[in-house]
Write a structure and sequence with these properties.
Helix content: 25-40%
Strand content: 25-35%
CATH topology: Aminopeptidase
CATH class: Alpha Beta
Number of domains: 1
Number of strands: 9
Number of helices: 7
Low-confidence stretches: none
Oligomer: single chain
CATH architecture: 3-Layer(aba) Sandwich
CATH superfamily: Gcn5-related N-acetyltransferase (GNAT)
Shape: globular
């Protein structure tokens, strides 16, 4: 029988750090992702996300997350793509780290976002999983710019960014969760990136590169 990763090459990609394994979320992972999100990500009423997806009714969260994963897969093409990585530590699903790009062949630019279940926060996992994606973007995809953003009060996210060499690209006023917010735009290049003292292990890159025409 043909392996699903042969049909859909993103499923064959795995990034491994000293403590974490990152791989694109499959259908069989969705229940673990929903459980992790439902266990808590942030204080009630203090969402760090532009879309308040965590603040829906509990009976709506799972279906909404599943729709999002399926929507991102359906919209994947060389011109516009998003890779939604599940993050595992010792077999436990900790959260999600995503990377997306539009017109990557021309712009060589990616954007990232992430979340971690509350019990996994403050342990250095956020920095490790972001570093994994930036290493992959620069060393394998040959990107020359990685962007992110965070609300002005989100010190943990901004701290991770600074520790990895991100620099400010200005601020803007945006409507996040239906409220006007000050959002910091930040970016990192191969020259400013503060590389970790470990080596990223990558499996399944070549089929994905061919699929998305990197």
């Amino acid at each position: 029988m043909t392996a699903l990763s042969t049909i859909w090459p993103p499923f064959g990609l795995t990034l491994t750090t000293p403590r974490l394994e990152l791989r694109p979320i499959r259908d069989e992972d969705i229940a673990s992702a929903v459980e992790a999100a439902a266990s808590g990500i942030h204080e009630p009423g203090r969402s760090p996300f532009s879309n308040p997806w965590t603040e829906v009714r509990p009976d709506e969260l799972g279906a909404n997350m599943a729709r999002w994963y399926w929507q991102c897969r359906a919209g994947t093409s060389p011109e516009s793509w998003m890779l939604l990585f599940g993050v595992w530590h010792e077999g436990q699903f900790l959260g999600c780290q995503d990377m997306e790009a539009k017109d990557f062949a021309t712009l060589k630019t990616v954007s990232t976002g992430s979340w971690l279940r509350s019990s996994a926060q403050g342990l250095g996992f956020g920095k490790e999983m972001r570093a994994a994606l930036i290493l992959y973007a620069f060393d394998y995809l040959k990107a020359d710019l990685a962007r992110s953003e965070a609300l002005d009060w989100n010190a943990p996210s901004l701290g991770v960014s600074r520790s990895l060499g991100y620099e400010s690209n200005g601020t803007s006023r945006q409507a996040w969760s239906g409220t006007r917010r000050i959002v910091h735009q930040i970016q990192v290049t191969p020259e400013t990136f503060k590389r970790p003292d470990w080596t990223l292990k990558v499996q399944g890159h070549e089929p994905l590169a061919h699929f998305l025409k990197f």
